[in-house]
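Lab notebook, bench 4. The sequencing result for the construct came back, and we need a structural model before the next group meeting so we can plan mutations. Quick request posted to the team channel:

Model the 3D structure of this chain.
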Amino acid sequence: MSSRAVKQPSMFSQVLSYQSDGLLAIESVVNDTIGPTYTYIIHLDEDASADRTATFVGNLTTQVEQVCNDLASHPVLSKAPAVNALGFSQGGQFLRAYVERCNNPKVANLVTFGSQHNGISEFQNCAPNDWLCDFWSGALKANTWDSLVQSKLVPAQYFRDPEDLESYLENSNFLADVNNEREVKNSTYKENMKKLENFVMYLFANDTAVVPKESAWFAEVNTTSEEVTKLQHRTLYKEDWLGLKSLDEDGRLHFKTIVGSHMQFGDDVVQDVAKKYFKSQ
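Done. Here's the predicted structure in token form:
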């Protein structure tokens, strides 16, 4: 292991957009807070443009498999007894999928920021001059459950309309599986999640980019009445499909709030995470 490594290296996942400068800044804050820490920023392509494209166009099943293979063969991380994982926006549920499906190297502490753990019920509007989003937005909204869309467009693969769960359960390429919502449950997903020392979920109080924002805490929001059903009141929790109830009862499931818009937080938040969850024992 490199001289910069600690017992539990940190693994950053930013899949929403290619923002290496921001992640390098977070790495610097972590190092300043707890000392030199080996960090790895997950990427799907060495080319920055292709990596950004993969955050919107790609098959999440094969992308997660690629990350599993990359980390299992990594010269430093593969030798670590455990790693800490920090996921931003959609990167949070992708890292959770990594924990559930392979978890090698094992994740000790999983921290997610504004992630869509219970999916989205609305697609974001395209940002100005985002030609990639503009090109695909029609298919994304009009043909969400089409097999081609489900295998190609990333946001469609974690779309979940509580008013149309039948279509979701039948056609979802990603979220219905990693949330263990189908009739046949994957016991490995639950067992791997229960191995976490801590699962920390940050929700942005003024989030308008993620609809519903409560998805960051696995809450269910009725699209008509806007009634919020907390995780603890859902069958997913009561029957412990993902081990979340087990984590919660052990004091290892944490619900955190940041007052601000989507992905708007300061160094103090990162410092708090590093001190509480990333410090080497």
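The longest helix spans residues 20-34.
Will bring this to the meeting.
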